[in-house]
């Protein structure tokens, strides 16, 4: 296997999470007695460009099918983040009724709806038909396609180019990252702006966020590596921000290399210096991560078995992809966790892949009154503990698994 970016043969294993189903392949009751397909989940570090990447064992068109279960709008904090972004970008780049905003991986219109409210023209590009249909019902024009150079050429033929081209948590999802970035360059107006948000691999390592690794995430990104990828397609970083979403992310700002209308922020050099100082440009920094993940496995299994021996009930909240990675790596089944609550109707009534834990509505939590609620989407801990604060009424406690198992 060669590096997706620089084509260097990959020799250094970052972490091996062994085998698991695709994290969003939720099961119906009828499927519980059918075989499940498991895929290797081994991650490598390129010793040349330091792109951390998983092999493409599961094809992207099989992951992002017409029954995709992730809808962005079910998180109130994520909606608030999107609304703040729209306000900030509209002001910073003077977007108006004669501007064009294009979002790649626009999901259910969670973000573009706020541009529509401001009467700024938008186009969403979303490969999953069911989420795109929800966006269209919100008044967000959407194309059900994967983005790359082929679609970029089609958009150019239609006279469509972007003043603002954005993508949140999509750059890590694309198997051919060079084709993806090349396509963005094509549809960007000469003075247009690209913004991308993605989880920072620095936080993944420092905070032991191994559960953010799953087949849908092909790449785990640093500013250093992303800058090289964009430069290879004649795009230049002119700003970068650290933001708290998804356990610590970066928002990058890019422009055409020959666009002299935007000054390069001092944030660019500062971020490169921070990553270099931390060790992201040294191979030894990436070693030993498997052992850190293994300690979480031991801690979580010990906690769950202790509670079961004591006759306690443990439920989970959030049927998130990261939760499936965690549960399947730890070998946890529905004998240790009774059920998982999720607000998304597309997941309710189904079962988590491999673990076969049932996904239920929130009222079940009030009826069963579990002793512990394990928060699987730990990045939303504040939002979830506020929402479910009533479990304290019966002595219930929250448990967070990352970066180490702890009871709140």
Automatic annotation (TrEMBL):
The keyword Transferase applies. GO terms for biological process: methylation. The keyword Transferase applies. InterPro entries: Methyltransf_Zn-bd_dom_put (IPR013630), Methyltransf_Zn-bd_dom_put_sf (IPR038576), MeTrfase_14 (IPR013691), SAM-dependent_MTases_sf (IPR029063), Thiol_S-MT (IPR052356). GO terms for molecular function: methyltransferase activity. Residues 244-403 form the C-methyltransferase domain. It comes from the Bacteria. Residues 3-64 form the Methyltransferase putative zinc binding domain. Keywords: Methyltransferase, Transferase. PANTHER family: METHYLTRANSFERASE LIKE 7A, METHYLTRANSFERASE LIKE 7B. This is Methyltransferase domain-containing protein. The lineage of its organism: Bacteria, Pseudomonadati, Bacteroidota, Cytophagia, Cytophagales.
């Amino acid at each position: 296997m060669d590096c997706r970016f620089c084509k260097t043969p990959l020799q250094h294993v970052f972490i091996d999470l062994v085998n698991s189903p695709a994290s969003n392949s939720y099961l119906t009751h009828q499927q519980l007695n059918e075989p499940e397909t498991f895929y290797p989940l081994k991650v490598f570090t390129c010793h040349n460009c330091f792109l951390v990447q998983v092999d493409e064992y599961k094809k992207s068109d099989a992951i992002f099918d017409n029954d995709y279960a992730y809808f962005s709008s079910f998180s109130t904090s994520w909606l608030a983040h999107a609304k703040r972004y729209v306000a900030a970008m509209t002001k910073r780049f003077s977007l108006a009724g004669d501007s064009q905003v294009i979002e790649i991986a626009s999901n259910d219109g969670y973000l573009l709806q706020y541009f529509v409210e401001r009467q700024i023209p938008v186009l969403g590009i979303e490969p999953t038909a069911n989420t795109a249909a929800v966006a269209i019902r919100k008044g967000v024009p959407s194309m059900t396609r994967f983005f790359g150079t082929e679609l970029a050429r089609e958009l150019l033929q239609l006279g469509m180019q972007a003043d603002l081209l954005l993508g949140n948590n999509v750059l890590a999802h694309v198997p051919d990252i060079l084709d993806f970035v090349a396509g963005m360059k094509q549809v960007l107006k000469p003075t247009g702006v690209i913004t991308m948000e993605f989880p920072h691999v620095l936080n993944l390592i420092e905070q032991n966020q191994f559960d953010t690794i799953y087949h849908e995430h092909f790449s785990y990104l640093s500013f250093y590596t992303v800058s090289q990828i964009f430069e290879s397609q004649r795009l230049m970083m002119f700003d970068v921000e650290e933001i708290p979403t998804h356990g610590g992310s970066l928002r990058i700002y890019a422009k055409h290399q020959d666009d002299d209308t935007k000054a390069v922020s001092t944030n660019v050099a500062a971020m490169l210096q921070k990553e270099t100082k931390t060790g992201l440009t040294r191979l030894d920094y990436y070693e030993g991560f498997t052992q850190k993940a293994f300690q979480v496995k031991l801690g979580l299994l010990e906690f769950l078995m202790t509670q079961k021996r004591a006759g306690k009930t443990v439920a989970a909240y959030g049927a998130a992809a990261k939760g499936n990675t965690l549960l399947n790596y730890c070998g946890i089944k529905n004998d240790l966790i009774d059920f998982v609550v999720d607000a998304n109707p597309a997941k309710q009534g189904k079962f988590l892949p491999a673990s076969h834990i049932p996904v239920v509505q929130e009222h079940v939590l009030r009826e069963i009154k579990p002793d512990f609620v394990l928060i699987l989407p730990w990045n939303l801990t504040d939002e979830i503990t506020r929402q479910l604060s009533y479990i304290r009424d019966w002595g219930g406690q929250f448990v967070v698994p990352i970066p180490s198992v702890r009871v709140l």
